[in-house]
Amino acid sequence: MTRFRTYLALERWRSTLPTVAVLTGALLVWEGVVRARGVASFLLPAPSVVAARWLGDATFFLTEGGVTLAEALAGLALGGGLALLAGLLMAHWRWLERALLPIAVLAKVTPVVIVAPLFVLWFGFGPLPRVLIAALLTFFPVLIGTVTGLRTELPAARDVFATLNATPLEEAVLLRLPAALPHLFAAVKVSSTLALLGAVIAEWVGGDRGLGRVVLLANANLDTSTALAGVATIGAMGIALIGGLTLLERRVLFWQAGG
Amino acid sequence: MISARAEATFAGPGDRPASSTESDSLPSTALAVRALGVRHDYRARAGTVQALGRVDLLVETGELVVVLGPSGCGKSTLLRVLSGLLEPTAGLVELAGRPPVVARRRHSIGWLAQDDGLLPWRTVRGNAALALTLGGRRSADDDAVMAALGRVGLADSADRYPHELSGGMRQRAALARALVAEPVFLFLDEPFANLDELTRERLGDLLLEVRLASRPTTLLVTHSVTEAVRLGDRVIVLSPRPARVLADLAIDLARPRRYDQPGFGACVQRLKSALATVFPGEPG
């Protein structure tokens, strides 16, 4: 058993090895080129400089990152929650889908950079417009995931439920909702990075806090190392979000692994 | 003994005369299943398809009737109509003298199909318990669930999930779910078709064994002639679509049945011959 675990750990390491190797290689080349050519730090700082900038002011980046993450998560909860509700209703009443889906598509195809200033105009400079932008970006994928998931065909189980005289509510709660979870998780994973993107864009357009604001200001001041440290923080948060959701997914959808 | 109206009959042990007047005059309460002139049409891209064309079928309480025919002949449709999952386009269907919906409301139908329909996120115990909790009933009697699992030999696997089980074990879990509410009717739609031959035979024996307690009236759909002869009290052969009852053969062989017992081969041959007349080229 222990040997098997060691083997698994080794396999996991082996599967992440290519990523680590490529990333390290790229950073080394970057570092080398910047040093050899003596590239100005406002144009392109070496990775070591960016790292030093981050480590020298870790609390700042973590605090501002926390603001952005909180906005993204609030947006994800709000947008995802509303989309789940809308999806439940739309899966139940087809006419509602026909009525609401075009509006959802319209909201989806409207570029967020155009909507964001309007939201700031309407909802002020506080966190509200940022949360709303994140929610807007989250809404569509979760909606589609919910509707698709709830329409998953499980004919054999449905027959069993029918012969057992199950009520529509029982069928929804005990059969359709759990069966929709895989789709829902996929949608939430996609949406989580979109929510982060939405929060950053909203901060960019009009905000007093958050990493979007940090990167915007740093760019304006030609403080490229700060901008890149901010970008790296956003990237790390995105990876952490996806990673956390994947772990949760494995826990909740344990039955998918062997099925 | 009651006979279904047969389109064609053949001489041999257990054959019964084809008669519709006799069956029509019987009091419906004496019968477990009464289907008269059942037709079912469904809409396909090419137009309306007639799956069942005037099927008459009468089944006595406690009888195990096998519905035999190759894939696509409408035997699954017949089972769905009888269990009330589908409404017949025309004709009469009664379970214990009432429409199928009444039997469903009373939780007197046990259903098991080729696809076990187990919920992958529920344990074996949780799946079996569904039959006791759905439809507004709230008494998840764990003793009854465990007793049913014990009957199918899965008591030790009660807390395992379907994806941890073999195909045969999954079907046994589904059988436990079908049995746990002590149904009056057991409808089985090719329940063992996905299994290897040995497992299939074992599950057939298990089915006969678990029926002994409460003797639910059982309809078993299969395309296997030997399975039909091994399990059935009576075998109904369906014609190609639109399905009609082509032959109706009582299997008067002693139980437990073995392939080498006298009369077994003859029964198999008779059914194969009946099938060959309408399904040329189809191996029985």
How is this structure best summarized?
The complex is a heterodimer of chains A (259) and B (284). Chain A contains eleven helices and no strands.
Q: How would you sum up the global shape of chain A?
A: flat
User: What is the H/E order of chain B?
Assistant: HEEEHEHEHHHEHEHEEH
Low-pLDDT stretches of chain B: 1-29
Number of strands of chain A: 0
Q: What structural category do the secondary elements of chain A indicate?
A: mainly alpha
Radius of gyration of chain A: 23 Å
Helix proportion range of chain A: over 70%
Mean pLDDT rating of chain A:
89
How would you write the strand order of the largest sheet of chain B?
Answer: 5-6-7-3-8-9
Q: How does the major sheet of chain A shape up?
A: none
pLDDT < 50 stretches of chain A: none
Helix content class of chain B: 25-40%
Question: What proportion strand of chain A?
Answer: under 5%
The assigned structural class of chain B equals: alpha/beta
Q: What fraction strand of chain B?
A: 15-25%
Tally of extended strands of chain B?
A: 9
Major sheet of chain B: 6 strands, mixed
Report mean pLDDT of chain B, rounded to a whole number: 84
**Topology order of chain A in helix (H) and strand (E) letters:** HHHHHHHHHHH
Largest interface: A-B, 24 and 31 residues
User: What is the quaternary state of this protein?
Assistant: heterodimer
